[in-house]
Amino acid sequence: MDADEVLALAAAVERKSLHPLALAIVACAEDRGLAIDDATGIESEPGIGISGMVEGRRVEIKTSTGRPDRSDTLVDVHMDGNHAAVICLADQPRPEASKGIRGIRGEGPDVAMISGDREAAVKQVAESVGIRRYFAGQRPEEKLARLSEFGTTGVVYVGDGVNDAPSLKAADTGIAMGFKGAEVALETADVVLMNDTLSQLPFLIRLSRTMSRLIRINIALSFLINFLAVGAGALGWLTPVMGAVTHNIGSILVVALAASIRFHKED
């Protein structure tokens, strides 16, 4: 069995997955112009791999546990229970990742990376984008347990895969990458970024702080206007008609302040 045949069979199974590694394998097969058949009987185990039937063969793709010193990601391909090949994938950070990490740190929060990939691969990516704290080889339940190390409030988790869904749900704020994210991740997250641009995260932090500040201002303004209006009415300084006008003026001010967030632009 040659490399192209193995790749085509692996792509047939991985085409049923939205995991970044699966998308890379499918893209490679398509770039080579290989015919990708339909796979049936797909079974996926988060953090382990995926399997299915292709052309009467049982094809299994699993995360490799060998060669932990390599900085690339290895996946083992098994055919009918026999080891057939190893596919090597190099993790390339997105061009905007470093800028996004610097922007987040500039807003105050610390950043850590929790990944199911191999130690060497995670270390290389983390160091290339400026992340000092990272955890490798984490299964979904282990990712969930790691969240407790970051405190009990104000924890934000960003992810896009099936393995991230429990952590997206458990975090105070879960942010999913919507363009290629798994459906369960999108349904679980509190916020979905439809263009998958990491550099938007600092803007999202600033926007959320502005929204919180405006909410507090609006609540205080409403209480103040109503308190003064009630006091003026009790003293006879405010007629019923003017009281109604004052109430509407307060409502307009609150709505205008809330609408002002529309002009909060990304840098």
Descriptive overview:
With 267 residues, the protein is an alpha/beta fold. It folds into three domains: 3-89, Calcium-transporting ATPase, cytoplasmic domain N (3-Layer(aba) Sandwich), CATH 3.40.1110.10; 97-199, 3-Layer(aba) Sandwich (Rossmann fold); 203-263. The protein contains nine helices and ten strands. The strands form three sheets. Strands 1-2-3-4-5 form a five-stranded antiparallel β-sheet, covered by helices on one side. The protein has a three-stranded parallel β-sheet with strand order 8-9-10. It is elongated. The termini are far apart. The model has no long low-confidence stretch (mean pLDDT 86).
Shape: elongated
State the separation between the terminal residues, measured CA to CA: 53 Å
What is the total number of structural domains?
3
Strand order of the largest sheet: 1-2-3-4-5
Reported for the largest beta sheet, the result is: 5 strands, antiparallel
CATH superfamily of the largest domain: HAD superfamily/HAD-like
CATH 2nd-level architecture of the largest domain: 3-Layer(aba) Sandwich
CATH level-3 fold name of the largest domain: Rossmann fold
Number of helices: 9
Strand content: 15-25%
List segments where confidence is low: pLDDT < 50 over at least 5 consecutive residues. none
- What's the CATH class of the largest domain, please? Alpha Beta
Give the rounded overall mean pLDDT: 86
Radius of gyration: 26 Å
State the secondary-structure class. Answer: alpha/beta
Helix content: 40-55%
State the order of secondary-structure elements, H for helix, E for strand: HHEEEEEHEHEHEHEHEHH
- Strand tally is 10
